[in-house]
Amino acid sequence: MSATRRILLVEDEKAIRNAVTAYLEKEGYWVSGVGDGAAALEAFDKQRFDLVVLDLMLPKVSGEDVCRALRDSSDVPIIMLTAKGELEDRVSGLELGADDYLIKPFSPRELVARVRALLRRANVAEEPLRDRLEYGRLVIDVSAHKVYLAEEELDLTASEFKLLATLARYPGRVYSRMELVEKVLGYDFMGYERTIDSHVKNLRAKLDDDSKNPTYIYTVHGVGYRFEAPASGGS
Ligand code: CA
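^ thats the input. predicted complex w/ calcium ion below
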């Protein structure tokens, strides 16, 4: 299991969510973004996170309530995001149990600095994502967005590349279709989980991977997909 730090980002404003996600991913963090408080609690229930970035004003379940609920069950570091004026005349984010807070508008660079400081304080080692993944004949150059199979460069679409890089980052980890939609296609495609199947199909064709006897991409029935590193010297 890699030591990449996993961040849950809870923010209903899509522009902010996308910008913050891009910034954190560039810094080597694994980010899962959700747009309301109920989805945040659900995600936290199902997956392990090292830190939560939590907007205060959220649909469905408010940031305050999410923060309290998380605190009831976990001491995960929480950074609260608040608009100017939302908090000062109420209770401070820190009193809600958050570890730190930022007033909007904030610079992504500032957020990254706070994230890093909190993770350090939480005494968690950080490890940057690897730039190059090599599995037998398959080489994924993540920063250059290139994939090679037996030294031949594959012609992948942007979605196929993201899908492969996402799966191959953590061999053996099972991804649900919903997670893959979120990571590969983006939040706008939530509800279109089946589109992942056609991307997988095309990707398998390019990898010369047989769905019944796969070398790389395995179907996990009723759930989604996982990547496996082929046995050394594998086909
Ligand atoms: Ca908000």
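The longest helix spans residues 108-121.
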